[in-house]
Amino acid sequence: MKGLMMKYKPKKGFYDLSNKPETLSKKEHQQIQETQMMLMRVEKRKEEYMKDKAAWQMAQEMSAKLQQIILKHYQVD
Q1: 64 by DSSP, 3-state: which?
Q2: What share of the chain is helix, strand, coil (3-state, %, to 5)?
Q3: Rounded CA gap, 55 and 70, in Å?
Q4: How many CA atoms lie within 13 Å of 54's alpha carbon, on the beta-carbon side?
Q5: CA distance to 6, 14, 27, 36, 37, per residue, from 9 (Å)
Q6: Which among 8, 10, 26, 49 could bridge 33 via Cys, Cβ 3.0 to 4.6 Å?
Q7: Tens-digit pLDDT profile for residues 16-51
Q8: How many angstroms separate the CA atoms of 50 and 18, rounded?
Q9: CA-derived radius of gyration, the chain
């Protein structure tokens, strides 16, 4: 997806990653925003992904990794 920059848009039910914490580089911040946007697309097509066990497992692993990054770098209440 290089070259195709998608504008990050927070969505209800997902943590708002609009603001970059000082502990992340600009590139890292952009990468986690892109990961979250991909997971938003997965959520829209959840039924399809659940039928493909490998794709569903990959999405779950990406979600778990993103959650760890969010907990490490963002103030989560």
Answers
A1: helix
A2: 60, 0, 40
A3: 22
A4: 0
A5: 9, 10, 17, 10, 8
A6: 8
A7: 999 999 999 999 999 999 999 999 999 999 999 999
A8: 29
A9: 13
59 vs 66: CA distance, rounded Å:
10
| Residue 48 amino acid letter | E
What's the token pair of residue 45? Answer: 């097509």
Q: Which of 5, 6, 30 is nearest to 20 (CA)?
A: 30
Amino acid at 65: K
**Which of 14, 7, 34 has its CA nearest to residue 74?**
14
Q: Give the type of residue at 20.
A: K
pLDDT of residue 76: 82
Question: CA 57 to CA 30: how far, in whole Å?
Answer: 23
CA-based nearest residue to 36, from 77, 22, 73 = 73
